[in-house]
DNA sequence: CTGGTGTGGTACTGACCGGTAACATATATG
DNA sequence: CATATATGTTACCGGTCAGTACCACACCAG
Protein backbone atom coordinates (compact mmCIF):
# COMPACT_ATOMS: atom_id res chain seq x y z
CA UNK A 1 0.00 0.00 0.00
CA UNK A 2 2.74 2.43 0.79
CA UNK A 3 3.98 4.39 -2.17
CA UNK A 4 7.21 2.43 -2.36
CA UNK A 5 9.58 5.28 -1.79
CA UNK A 6 12.62 5.45 -4.05
CA UNK A 7 11.65 2.56 -6.22
CA UNK A 8 14.66 2.90 -8.43
CA UNK A 9 14.96 5.83 -10.70
CA UNK A 10 14.19 9.45 -10.15
CA UNK A 11 14.78 11.31 -6.97
CA UNK A 12 11.44 12.99 -7.42
CA UNK A 13 9.48 9.84 -6.73
CA UNK A 14 10.54 9.82 -3.12
CA UNK A 15 7.15 11.19 -2.15
CA UNK A 16 3.71 10.65 -3.55
CA UNK A 17 2.59 12.81 -6.46
CA UNK A 18 -0.16 14.27 -4.34
CA UNK A 19 2.28 15.54 -1.75
CA UNK A 20 4.58 16.93 -4.38
CA UNK A 21 1.69 18.70 -6.04
CA UNK A 22 0.52 20.32 -2.83
CA UNK A 23 4.03 21.34 -1.83
CA UNK A 24 4.80 22.78 -5.25
CA UNK A 25 1.47 24.54 -5.49
CA UNK A 26 2.00 26.07 -2.05
CA UNK A 27 5.32 27.50 -3.06
CA UNK A 28 4.08 28.87 -6.38
CA UNK A 29 0.79 30.21 -5.06
CA UNK A 30 2.48 32.03 -2.24
CA UNK A 31 5.32 33.39 -4.31
CA UNK A 32 3.48 34.53 -7.41
CA UNK A 33 -0.16 34.66 -6.39
CA UNK A 34 -2.92 32.16 -6.91
CA UNK A 35 -4.34 33.52 -10.12
CA UNK A 36 -0.89 33.95 -11.59
CA UNK A 37 -0.08 30.25 -11.45
CA UNK A 38 -1.63 27.75 -13.83
CA UNK A 39 -2.26 24.11 -13.09
CA UNK A 40 0.03 23.03 -15.89
CA UNK A 41 2.94 24.91 -14.32
CA UNK A 42 2.21 23.34 -10.96
CA UNK A 43 2.10 19.83 -12.34
CA UNK A 44 5.28 20.28 -14.31
CA UNK A 45 7.17 21.82 -11.40
CA UNK A 46 5.98 18.93 -9.24
CA UNK A 47 7.45 16.44 -11.68
CA UNK A 48 4.12 15.12 -12.83
CA UNK A 49 1.38 16.17 -15.20
CA UNK A 50 -2.00 17.80 -15.28
CA UNK A 51 -3.96 14.55 -15.41
CA UNK A 52 -2.49 13.25 -12.18
CA UNK A 53 -3.21 16.58 -10.58
CA UNK A 54 -6.84 16.36 -11.60
CA UNK A 55 -7.03 12.79 -10.32
CA UNK A 56 -6.28 14.12 -6.85
CA UNK A 57 -8.08 17.44 -6.93
CA UNK A 58 -11.44 18.06 -8.48
CA UNK A 59 -10.43 21.54 -9.60
CA UNK A 60 -7.82 24.22 -9.16
CA UNK A 61 -10.06 25.84 -6.58
CA UNK A 62 -9.99 22.66 -4.51
CA UNK A 63 -6.22 22.59 -4.70
CA UNK A 64 -6.18 26.17 -3.49
CA UNK A 65 -8.41 25.22 -0.57
CA UNK A 66 -6.12 22.34 0.32
CA UNK A 67 -3.13 24.68 0.12
CA UNK A 68 -4.72 26.99 2.65
CA UNK A 69 -5.95 24.13 4.83
CA UNK A 70 -2.40 22.89 5.24
CA UNK A 71 -1.17 26.29 6.29
CA UNK A 72 -3.97 26.55 8.81
CA UNK A 73 -3.01 23.16 10.21
CA UNK A 74 0.62 24.24 10.46
CA UNK A 75 -0.44 27.31 12.40
CA UNK A 76 -2.39 25.07 14.75
CA UNK A 77 0.72 23.03 15.41
CA UNK A 78 2.65 26.19 16.07
CA UNK A 79 0.10 27.17 18.73
CA UNK A 80 0.42 23.77 20.33
CA UNK A 81 4.18 24.04 20.41
CA UNK A 82 3.86 27.41 22.05
CA UNK A 83 1.63 25.98 24.76
CA UNK A 84 4.07 23.14 25.30
CA UNK A 85 7.02 25.51 25.54
CA UNK A 86 5.40 27.60 28.26
CA UNK A 87 2.89 25.35 30.02
CA UNK A 88 0.61 27.17 32.38
CA UNK A 89 2.19 30.52 31.55
CA UNK A 90 -0.14 32.35 29.20
CA UNK A 91 1.87 35.53 29.46
CA UNK A 92 4.98 33.76 28.21
CA UNK A 93 2.97 32.13 25.46
CA UNK A 94 1.70 35.52 24.39
CA UNK A 95 5.18 36.96 24.24
CA UNK A 96 6.49 33.89 22.51
CA UNK A 97 3.75 34.27 19.95
CA UNK A 98 4.74 37.89 19.39
CA UNK A 99 8.36 36.99 18.84
CA UNK A 100 7.50 34.15 16.49
CA UNK A 101 5.22 36.39 14.48
CA UNK A 102 7.82 39.11 14.11
CA UNK A 103 10.38 36.55 13.00
CA UNK A 104 7.87 35.20 10.50
CA UNK A 105 7.05 38.63 9.11
CA UNK A 106 10.66 39.65 8.80
CA UNK A 107 11.67 36.39 7.18
CA UNK A 108 13.19 37.35 3.90
CA UNK A 109 11.12 36.25 1.02
CA UNK A 110 7.95 36.45 2.98
CA UNK A 111 5.04 37.96 1.17
CA UNK A 112 2.50 38.42 3.94
CA UNK A 113 -0.08 36.02 5.26
CA UNK A 114 -1.03 33.49 2.62
CA UNK A 115 -4.57 33.29 3.93
CA UNK A 116 -5.06 37.03 3.91
CA UNK A 117 -3.52 37.27 0.45
CA UNK A 118 -5.89 34.60 -0.79
CA UNK A 119 -8.81 36.60 0.57
CA UNK A 120 -7.64 39.51 -1.56
CA UNK A 121 -7.27 37.39 -4.66
CA UNK A 122 -10.51 35.48 -4.22
CA UNK A 123 -13.26 37.92 -3.35
CA UNK A 124 -15.95 35.55 -4.54
CA UNK A 125 -17.96 34.60 -1.49
CA UNK A 126 -18.67 31.05 -2.58
CA UNK A 127 -15.13 30.11 -3.39
CA UNK A 128 -14.19 26.91 -1.53
CA UNK A 129 -11.23 28.71 -0.01
CA UNK A 130 -13.27 31.47 1.59
CA UNK A 131 -14.57 29.38 4.47
CA UNK A 132 -11.04 28.14 5.18
CA UNK A 133 -9.82 31.71 5.37
CA UNK A 134 -12.62 32.98 7.55
CA UNK A 135 -12.41 30.03 9.90
CA UNK A 136 -8.66 30.38 10.19
CA UNK A 137 -8.76 34.07 10.97
CA UNK A 138 -11.57 33.59 13.45
CA UNK A 139 -9.58 30.84 15.10
CA UNK A 140 -6.46 32.95 15.37
CA UNK A 141 -8.42 35.71 16.99
CA UNK A 142 -10.08 33.30 19.42
CA UNK A 143 -6.74 31.90 20.49
CA UNK A 144 -5.41 35.38 21.10
CA UNK A 145 -8.47 36.33 23.11
CA UNK A 146 -8.14 33.20 25.23
CA UNK A 147 -4.48 33.86 25.83
CA UNK A 148 -5.06 37.46 26.80
CA UNK A 149 -7.88 36.49 29.10
CA UNK A 150 -5.74 33.84 30.76
CA UNK A 151 -3.02 36.43 31.21
CA UNK A 152 -5.28 38.40 33.46
CA UNK A 153 -5.04 41.64 31.56
CA UNK A 154 -7.73 44.24 31.63
CA UNK A 155 -10.05 44.10 28.62
CA UNK A 156 -8.56 40.95 27.12
CA UNK A 157 -10.68 41.10 24.01
CA UNK A 158 -9.55 44.60 23.21
CA UNK A 159 -5.90 43.72 23.69
CA UNK A 160 -6.30 40.59 21.57
CA UNK A 161 -7.83 42.59 18.76
CA UNK A 162 -5.10 45.19 18.99
CA UNK A 163 -2.43 42.52 18.70
CA UNK A 164 -4.37 40.81 15.94
CA UNK A 165 -4.63 43.96 13.85
CA UNK A 166 -1.03 44.81 14.54
CA UNK A 167 0.06 41.46 13.13
CA UNK A 168 -2.19 41.68 10.12
CA UNK A 169 -0.88 45.15 9.45
CA UNK A 170 2.70 44.01 9.79
CA UNK A 171 2.11 41.30 7.23
CA UNK A 172 0.63 43.57 4.63
CA UNK A 173 3.02 46.43 5.36
CA UNK A 174 6.03 44.23 4.81
CA UNK A 175 4.88 43.84 1.21
CA UNK A 176 4.87 47.54 0.43
CA UNK A 177 7.37 49.09 2.81
CA UNK A 178 9.59 46.07 3.22
CA UNK A 179 10.67 44.21 6.33
CA UNK A 180 12.65 47.22 7.52
CA UNK A 181 9.52 49.32 7.75
CA UNK A 182 6.99 49.55 10.55
CA UNK A 183 6.74 45.76 10.68
CA UNK A 184 10.23 45.51 12.15
CA UNK A 185 9.03 46.81 15.49
CA UNK A 186 6.21 44.37 15.99
CA UNK A 187 7.53 42.92 19.25
CA UNK A 188 8.20 46.30 20.78
CA UNK A 189 4.73 47.55 19.87
CA UNK A 190 3.07 44.41 21.15
CA UNK A 191 4.93 44.54 24.43
CA UNK A 192 3.85 48.13 24.88
CA UNK A 193 0.25 47.15 24.24
CA UNK A 194 0.43 44.31 26.73
CA UNK A 195 1.99 46.61 29.29
CA UNK A 196 -0.75 49.17 28.75
CA UNK A 197 -3.32 46.52 29.58
CA UNK A 198 -1.82 45.56 32.92
CA UNK A 199 -4.49 45.67 35.61
CA UNK A 200 -2.24 47.95 37.63
CA UNK A 201 -2.37 50.60 34.96
CA UNK A 202 -5.29 52.96 34.65
CA UNK A 203 -8.38 51.53 33.03
CA UNK A 204 -8.64 53.05 29.55
CA UNK A 205 -11.46 55.38 28.67
CA UNK B 1 -27.82 53.09 -34.82
CA UNK B 2 -26.63 52.16 -31.40
CA UNK B 3 -28.57 49.36 -29.79
CA UNK B 4 -29.79 51.82 -27.19
CA UNK B 5 -29.70 49.09 -24.62
CA UNK B 6 -27.70 51.52 -22.54
CA UNK B 7 -29.71 52.81 -19.63
CA UNK B 8 -29.00 56.50 -20.00
CA UNK B 9 -26.92 57.56 -22.89
CA UNK B 10 -26.54 61.19 -22.04
CA UNK B 11 -24.76 60.40 -18.84
CA UNK B 12 -22.14 58.37 -20.55
CA UNK B 13 -21.34 60.91 -23.22
CA UNK B 14 -20.99 63.83 -20.90
CA UNK B 15 -17.52 62.76 -19.87
CA UNK B 16 -14.61 61.78 -22.00
CA UNK B 17 -14.02 58.14 -22.80
CA UNK B 18 -10.78 58.27 -20.91
CA UNK B 19 -12.48 59.38 -17.73
CA UNK B 20 -15.16 56.75 -18.09
CA UNK B 21 -12.55 54.07 -18.64
CA UNK B 22 -10.58 55.01 -15.55
CA UNK B 23 -13.69 55.29 -13.40
CA UNK B 24 -15.06 51.97 -14.60
CA UNK B 25 -11.73 50.23 -14.26
CA UNK B 26 -11.37 51.54 -10.73
CA UNK B 27 -14.70 50.10 -9.73
CA UNK B 28 -14.08 46.73 -11.35
CA UNK B 29 -10.47 46.40 -10.23
CA UNK B 30 -11.38 47.15 -6.65
CA UNK B 31 -14.47 44.99 -6.55
CA UNK B 32 -13.24 41.88 -8.31
CA UNK B 33 -9.48 42.18 -8.26
CA UNK B 34 -7.10 43.38 -10.93
CA UNK B 35 -6.27 40.06 -12.52
CA UNK B 36 -9.92 39.04 -12.52
CA UNK B 37 -11.00 41.89 -14.80
CA UNK B 38 -10.23 41.93 -18.50
CA UNK B 39 -9.77 45.00 -20.61
CA UNK B 40 -12.69 44.05 -22.80
CA UNK B 41 -15.02 44.01 -19.79
CA UNK B 42 -13.72 47.41 -18.72
CA UNK B 43 -14.23 48.97 -22.11
CA UNK B 44 -17.71 47.56 -22.48
CA UNK B 45 -18.78 48.63 -18.99
CA UNK B 46 -17.41 52.09 -19.75
CA UNK B 47 -19.60 52.35 -22.82
CA UNK B 48 -16.73 52.20 -25.26
CA UNK B 49 -14.49 49.57 -26.77
CA UNK B 50 -11.08 48.05 -26.43
CA UNK B 51 -9.52 50.11 -29.20
CA UNK B 52 -10.34 53.40 -27.53
CA UNK B 53 -8.97 52.06 -24.29
CA UNK B 54 -5.69 51.21 -25.94
CA UNK B 55 -5.56 54.63 -27.56
CA UNK B 56 -5.39 56.12 -24.07
CA UNK B 57 -3.34 53.52 -22.23
CA UNK B 58 -0.36 51.70 -23.59
CA UNK B 59 -1.27 48.52 -21.74
CA UNK B 60 -3.47 47.13 -19.03
CA UNK B 61 -0.62 47.54 -16.59
CA UNK B 62 -0.51 51.24 -17.33
CA UNK B 63 -4.23 51.49 -16.71
CA UNK B 64 -3.71 49.76 -13.39
CA UNK B 65 -0.99 52.23 -12.49
CA UNK B 66 -3.27 55.13 -13.38
CA UNK B 67 -6.04 53.58 -11.27
CA UNK B 68 -3.76 53.51 -8.25
CA UNK B 69 -2.33 56.94 -8.97
CA UNK B 70 -5.81 58.44 -8.81
CA UNK B 71 -6.50 56.81 -5.47
CA UNK B 72 -3.23 58.12 -4.12
CA UNK B 73 -4.16 61.60 -5.28
CA UNK B 74 -7.54 61.31 -3.62
CA UNK B 75 -5.86 60.33 -0.37
CA UNK B 76 -3.66 63.39 -0.67
CA UNK B 77 -6.73 65.58 -0.99
CA UNK B 78 -8.20 63.92 2.06
CA UNK B 79 -5.11 64.82 4.05
CA UNK B 80 -5.35 68.39 2.88
CA UNK B 81 -8.98 68.57 3.89
CA UNK B 82 -8.06 67.24 7.30
CA UNK B 83 -5.44 69.93 7.71
CA UNK B 84 -7.93 72.56 6.64
CA UNK B 85 -10.57 71.28 9.06
CA UNK B 86 -8.25 71.52 12.05
CA UNK B 87 -5.64 74.14 11.21
CA UNK B 88 -2.78 74.25 13.64
CA UNK B 89 -4.21 71.41 15.67
CA UNK B 90 -2.27 68.27 14.83
CA UNK B 91 -3.92 66.34 17.61
CA UNK B 92 -7.35 67.01 16.18
CA UNK B 93 -6.10 66.12 12.70
CA UNK B 94 -4.80 62.85 14.05
CA UNK B 95 -8.09 61.99 15.67
CA UNK B 96 -9.99 63.11 12.61
CA UNK B 97 -7.83 60.85 10.53
CA UNK B 98 -8.59 57.94 12.84
CA UNK B 99 -12.31 58.52 12.60
CA UNK B 100 -12.20 58.86 8.83
CA UNK B 101 -10.20 55.68 8.50
CA UNK B 102 -12.59 53.70 10.66
CA UNK B 103 -15.52 54.98 8.66
CA UNK B 104 -13.72 54.03 5.48
CA UNK B 105 -12.91 50.54 6.72
CA UNK B 106 -16.42 49.89 7.95
CA UNK B 107 -17.99 51.23 4.81
CA UNK B 108 -20.09 48.41 3.49
CA UNK B 109 -18.74 47.06 0.29
CA UNK B 110 -15.23 48.00 1.15
CA UNK B 111 -12.64 45.42 0.34
CA UNK B 112 -9.56 46.76 2.04
CA UNK B 113 -6.98 49.19 0.76
CA UNK B 114 -6.83 49.13 -3.02
CA UNK B 115 -3.11 49.86 -2.98
CA UNK B 116 -2.32 47.10 -0.53
CA UNK B 117 -4.52 44.67 -2.44
CA UNK B 118 -2.71 45.57 -5.64
CA UNK B 119 0.59 44.79 -3.93
CA UNK B 120 -0.75 41.33 -3.17
CA UNK B 121 -1.96 40.76 -6.70
CA UNK B 122 1.14 42.16 -8.40
CA UNK B 123 4.21 40.76 -6.69
CA UNK B 124 6.37 41.42 -9.70
CA UNK B 125 8.90 44.01 -8.67
CA UNK B 126 9.05 45.78 -12.01
CA UNK B 127 5.35 46.20 -12.50
CA UNK B 128 4.58 49.85 -13.20
CA UNK B 129 2.17 49.87 -10.28
CA UNK B 130 4.71 48.80 -7.67
CA UNK B 131 6.41 52.17 -7.38
CA UNK B 132 3.03 53.86 -7.02
CA UNK B 133 2.15 51.54 -4.17
CA UNK B 134 5.45 51.86 -2.35
CA UNK B 135 5.50 55.61 -2.71
CA UNK B 136 1.94 55.89 -1.49
CA UNK B 137 2.50 53.77 1.58
CA UNK B 138 5.71 55.58 2.39
CA UNK B 139 3.90 58.87 2.05
CA UNK B 140 1.08 57.80 4.34
CA UNK B 141 3.56 56.75 6.97
CA UNK B 142 5.47 60.02 6.66
CA UNK B 143 2.32 62.03 7.11
CA UNK B 144 1.44 60.08 10.21
CA UNK B 145 4.91 60.52 11.64
CA UNK B 146 4.77 64.25 11.01
CA UNK B 147 1.38 64.50 12.64
CA UNK B 148 2.45 62.54 15.67
CA UNK B 149 5.60 64.59 16.01
CA UNK B 150 3.62 67.80 15.78
CA UNK B 151 1.28 66.49 18.43
CA UNK B 152 4.12 66.43 20.88
CA UNK B 153 3.74 62.83 21.87
CA UNK B 154 6.61 60.77 23.15
CA UNK B 155 8.24 58.60 20.50
CA UNK B 156 6.22 59.96 17.59
CA UNK B 157 7.65 57.51 15.08
CA UNK B 158 6.67 54.55 17.17
CA UNK B 159 3.15 55.83 17.65
CA UNK B 160 2.85 56.57 13.94
CA UNK B 161 3.92 53.06 13.05
CA UNK B 162 1.52 51.60 15.57
CA UNK B 163 -1.34 53.54 14.08
CA UNK B 164 -0.18 52.70 10.59
CA UNK B 165 -0.08 48.97 11.24
CA UNK B 166 -3.38 49.16 13.06
CA UNK B 167 -5.01 50.68 9.99
CA UNK B 168 -3.43 48.24 7.59
CA UNK B 169 -4.56 45.40 9.79
CA UNK B 170 -8.08 46.76 10.00
CA UNK B 171 -8.26 46.91 6.22
CA UNK B 172 -7.16 43.35 5.68
CA UNK B 173 -9.09 42.00 8.64
CA UNK B 174 -12.33 43.46 7.36
CA UNK B 175 -12.00 41.16 4.37
CA UNK B 176 -11.85 37.96 6.38
CA UNK B 177 -13.65 38.70 9.63
CA UNK B 178 -15.99 41.34 8.29
CA UNK B 179 -16.55 44.92 9.37
CA UNK B 180 -17.96 43.72 12.70
CA UNK B 181 -14.68 42.10 13.67
CA UNK B 182 -11.63 43.67 15.21
CA UNK B 183 -11.68 46.44 12.65
CA UNK B 184 -14.80 47.93 14.23
CA UNK B 185 -12.83 49.20 17.19
CA UNK B 186 -10.18 51.06 15.27
CA UNK B 187 -10.93 54.45 16.79
CA UNK B 188 -10.98 53.13 20.33
CA UNK B 189 -7.68 51.34 19.85
CA UNK B 190 -6.08 54.33 18.23
CA UNK B 191 -7.18 56.67 20.96
CA UNK B 192 -5.75 54.32 23.54
CA UNK B 193 -2.45 54.27 21.69
CA UNK B 194 -2.36 58.04 21.49
CA UNK B 195 -3.16 58.32 25.17
CA UNK B 196 -0.39 55.88 26.01
CA UNK B 197 2.08 58.12 24.22
CA UNK B 198 1.22 61.23 26.15
CA UNK B 199 4.35 62.81 27.56
CA UNK B 200 2.67 62.86 30.98
CA UNK B 201 2.43 59.10 31.00
CA UNK B 202 5.38 56.95 31.91
CA UNK B 203 7.95 56.48 29.21
CA UNK B 204 7.39 53.05 27.62
CA UNK B 205 9.70 50.10 27.89
C1' DC C 1 -15.40 71.40 -49.34
C1' DT C 2 -11.19 69.28 -47.26
C1' DG C 3 -8.57 67.31 -44.04
C1' DG C 4 -7.40 66.00 -39.45
C1' DT C 5 -8.73 64.01 -35.14
C1' DG C 6 -11.09 61.23 -31.99
C1' DT C 7 -14.08 57.56 -31.69
C1' DG C 8 -16.91 53.17 -32.61
C1' DG C 9 -17.22 48.45 -34.63
C1' DT C 10 -15.55 44.24 -36.08
C1' DA C 11 -12.51 40.86 -36.70
C1' DC C 12 -8.43 39.01 -35.84
C1' DT C 13 -3.78 37.03 -33.68
C1' DG C 14 -1.26 34.10 -30.69
C1' DA C 15 -1.00 32.62 -26.35
C1' DC C 16 -2.72 30.67 -22.32
C1' DC C 17 -6.37 29.03 -19.32
C1' DG C 18 -8.97 25.12 -16.69
C1' DG C 19 -10.41 20.76 -17.66
C1' DT C 20 -11.02 16.16 -20.28
C1' DA C 21 -10.48 11.92 -23.41
C1' DA C 22 -7.99 8.16 -24.72
C1' DC C 23 -4.35 5.30 -24.35
C1' DA C 24 0.10 3.43 -22.57
C1' DT C 25 2.75 1.97 -18.75
C1' DA C 26 4.13 0.21 -14.29
C1' DT C 27 3.59 -2.41 -10.31
C1' DA C 28 1.61 -4.99 -6.70
C1' DT C 29 -1.30 -8.42 -5.27
C1' DG C 30 -4.57 -12.33 -6.03
C1' DC D 1 -0.90 -15.02 -15.15
C1' DA D 2 -4.72 -11.80 -14.39
C1' DT D 3 -6.50 -8.02 -12.60
C1' DA D 4 -6.85 -3.58 -10.27
C1' DT D 5 -4.98 0.70 -9.26
C1' DA D 6 -1.98 4.68 -9.84
C1' DT D 7 0.60 7.15 -12.89
C1' DG D 8 2.58 9.10 -17.33
C1' DT D 9 1.85 11.00 -22.19
C1' DT D 10 -0.34 13.31 -25.76
C1' DA D 11 -3.71 15.61 -27.82
C1' DC D 12 -7.55 18.09 -27.56
C1' DC D 13 -11.79 21.22 -26.13
C1' DG D 14 -14.01 25.64 -25.53
C1' DG D 15 -13.12 29.83 -23.62
C1' DT D 16 -10.65 34.00 -22.42
C1' DC D 17 -6.76 36.85 -22.36
C1' DA D 18 -3.95 41.18 -23.93
C1' DG D 19 -3.19 43.53 -27.83
C1' DT D 20 -3.74 44.96 -32.97
C1' DA D 21 -5.35 45.94 -38.01
C1' DC D 22 -8.55 47.94 -40.61
C1' DC D 23 -12.29 50.59 -41.80
C1' DA D 24 -16.33 53.67 -40.99
C1' DC D 25 -18.28 57.60 -39.01
C1' DA D 26 -18.83 62.12 -36.73
C1' DC D 27 -17.17 66.40 -35.95
C1' DC D 28 -14.71 70.66 -36.21
C1' DA D 29 -11.35 73.89 -38.24
C1' DG D 30 -9.32 75.94 -42.40
Protein architecture, described:
Two copies of one chain form a homodimer. The first copy, chain A, is 66% helix and 0% strand. Chain A contains nine helices and no strands. In chain A, α1 crosses α4 and α7 packs across α8. The N and C termini of chain A lie far apart (63 Å). The interface between A and B is large, with 52 and 52 residues. The first copy, chain A, binds a DNA duplex (30 and 30 nucleotides) through residues 1, 3-4, 7, 17, 38-40, 48-52, 54-55, 59-60.
Number of helices of chain A: 9
- Proportion of residues in helical segments of chain A: 55-70%
Secondary structure category of chain A:
mainly alpha
- Determine the mean pLDDT of chain A: 91
Give the tally of β-strands of chain A: 0
Amino acid sequence: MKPQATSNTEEKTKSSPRERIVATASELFYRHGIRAVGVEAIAEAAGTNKMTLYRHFASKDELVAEYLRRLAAEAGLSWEGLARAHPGDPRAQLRGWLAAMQAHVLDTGQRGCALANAAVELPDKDHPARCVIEQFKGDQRSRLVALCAASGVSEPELLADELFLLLEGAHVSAQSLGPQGPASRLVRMGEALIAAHQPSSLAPR
